[in-house]
Amino acid sequence: MKSKIYGSFLCGAATFLFSQAAVADGGDSVVLSTQGANSLEFDAGVSVSEQFTDNVFLTANDRRSDFITVIEPWISLALRRQDFRLNLDASAEFGRFADYSSEDFNDYFLGAQARYRINDSVFAFGGLDFAWEHENRNSPDDVDGVKPTELHDASGFFGIGGKINDKSFRLGVNVRDLDYDDVRAFDGVTFVNVDNDDRDRLQTEIGGRLGVAKTTNGEVFVQGIYDKREYDEKIDNGGLGFQRSSDGFQAAVGYTGTVGEMRGEVLVGVMSQNYDDPRFGTTTTVDLGADLTWPLSAKTQLTGIVERSIEETTLAGASGYVSTSAGLRLRHSVAPNMSVAGYFFLTQNDYQGAARTDILTETGISLRRYLNSRVYLDTDYDFLQRQSDVAGVEYDEHRLTLSFGMSLDPRYDAGSVDLAKASGSGFYVGAQVSDSALHTKVDGPRGGGGNLTADFGDHDLTGGVFAGYRTDFGNLVLGAEAEVDFGESGWTHLANRDFSAKRGNSFGVSALTGVRTKNDSLIYGRFGLVSTEFDSTYQQGTNPLVSTSDRKLGFLLGVGTEVPLGRRVSARMEYQVRAYEDYDIGSPLGGGDDDNFANVESVARLGLVYALGGTNRATPEIEPTDFSGLYAGVQLGHGSLQSDNVGPRVSGSGVAFTLDATRAGQGFTGGLVAGYGHQINNFYVGGEAEFELSTADWNIERSPQGRIYSAKKLGTIGAGLRLGYVVNDSVLLYGRAGVVRSKFNTEYQFGGVSVDQNDNLNGIRLGGGVEFEIGKKTNVRFDYTHTDYESHSVNYVAGVDQFDTSEQLFRVGLTRKF
């Protein structure tokens, strides 16, 4: 977590400090109040929420779902005087689970922040925060207790800031005390007490920031922080006697201000933490930060955030982890009483001194509608996923929340005539073709008291139809849709145990929320429920073959675009991720040693939509787009990785056989793209180069004895051609073909031999997409590709395994034309 000092410098970890400093930096003097010499403001409110989660304990297999009732009261008091400001806040959060009452929680918060103007150039600030809260199950240090770990978090900060010679400065101290309660946990035999006292610590930060150069629209600054972390117990309870106390620093140079329409801050520097334990040594790495806001229109705002920090952990052998987060927040205001927001964040946690790297994904969408100026209704959908190169710690969670809230103070003028109202509505139907990639995580016991955790999967084409109804509120689109999908995709594992899973027909319902851009193109997100038939088989040795066929319910999350082609016809391109309830299968079934199958599906789709009759809405006049010229941009994607794995094996009875299985996994990719294109009438031809980093991987772990191996795609460089056609004078539909070179890392452990191998594999990448303009010289693209790589092998002395890898990748890109 960023410190209050650091957060106030950059990303708003202390909103009060940031907002006050922003005022101070904005003029020649420190202005504390624009509302008069004296004022007292009081506000209070409460929200009541009903949540549904499909994964209470955040596990890959044996998932448990539940409903959660959450009540959140809050009060705030603000005192304003000519030279003084004081903010007081109090809040609570009470959570009650319908089935798993052990997860119930009561959280409380008290906070106070003050600021005093010393003179026209200097102000003093300070504050105190007290929190009684619980540790979420997604914490990497969660001890899997019978209930969540409770903790007490107390912090205080103070300092001075202002301007000297028209350059800003801030000096401050932040002290934070963390106290974790003990918790009981099951160790496999009995319940034991987990002593969390070795996590208690005092963190002290002393820092400053100084403006060094003014620009026309901003300021260049330097900043530094001394960071001391002192644990109450000098040695932890992990059994190896690690000393986790440390001291370190952060130093950076940055810029705050505006560039064109974009405003915010960026910085780059170095950070380091030196640990008392000589086995840990020193962690030194690059520090990065950004908090940038870009107004896409008068009612739409996009914010990009980058943060990097060195975090604490009690993971055995690790001194801590370097956390790198990057994400986007999009907010669109329809009217004072209606708004929609979406977010997407990726976080990499790189553990220092331990062979573990986690990738966390957080994304969601929220719709708020005020029933009057004080009472609102929120509908939220959130998706959380953790991927790791350590088997058994991955998970994903879908969470749906419906909330009613109110506040004493009105949030808009009740007499406003500019309130949200429907501007058009109607039914529609369509057909689509999909590339469905099924990924199954298998977990189950093996001989000799062991356990297997393994990833399998494959992909295939499916087709379907859909129908829906939607309503426009200005540029905001809300809708509901039903779909039916026909086809099969699945995988087979052939070894001393033969088992398989195949996905069949499915039907689903979902809610859609989208924003219409210029030229009437629609960008939307969706969430909903899907029911899919799964056929599974299992045979072990001479036991009878077991076959099951059951429908499984799952959550789906999707993003897509719809572009008008004319005459009520639109083209649609979409990507979905689906997570299903897991199930047990074995041979014999129910014999006590069943495997658990947890299925996740990624679906890329291309479809046509026909709008039926309805209330007509005003459509904008098309502004022709010229796609010619040089461009560059960024792109973010998600996809699946499959490797056909063939290799020699020996059964427990000593019989040799050949393994034939498809390993599979999923992951995210992000990178840069640049190219040049030329448009001749409606035809387009262009070439581009791309660079991307990836988290896609799969893992196999047979513990405590057996094979442990994995493959991970690290990154790609490539080049290709795009050929396309411009429809409706504003939308580019294109196909693409090119070559790529990707770096893969394969780790293999067996029979006392460890292999850590990097291979640069060439591949042929084919695909297509759609691109259109969303702002002046700014385009968005939705792109889907399939890549076939050359095969590679791993020699682990006792044998050689072959891998033939392919990849499906869906990306959303943002480009700027020069």
TrEMBL record:
GO CC terms of this entry? membrane
Name where it mostly resides. Answer: membrane
Q: Which domain of life is it from?
A: Bacteria
Q: Kindly state which keywords UniProt assigns to this record, in alphabetical order.
A: Membrane, Signal
Compartments (UniProt record): Membrane
Family statement drawn from the similarity comment of this UniProt entry: Belongs to the Omp25/RopB family.
Keyword Lipoprotein in the entry? The reply is: no
The UniProt record lists the Outer membrane protein beta-barrel domain at: 420-595, 625-818
Enumerate the SUPFAM superfamilies for this protein.
Answer: OMPA-like
Task: Kindly give the PANTHER family that the UniProt entry links to this protein.
Answer: BLL7405 PROTEIN (PTHR34001:SF3)
State what protein this is by name. Uncharacterized protein, PEP-CTERM system associated
| Residues passing through the membrane, by range | none
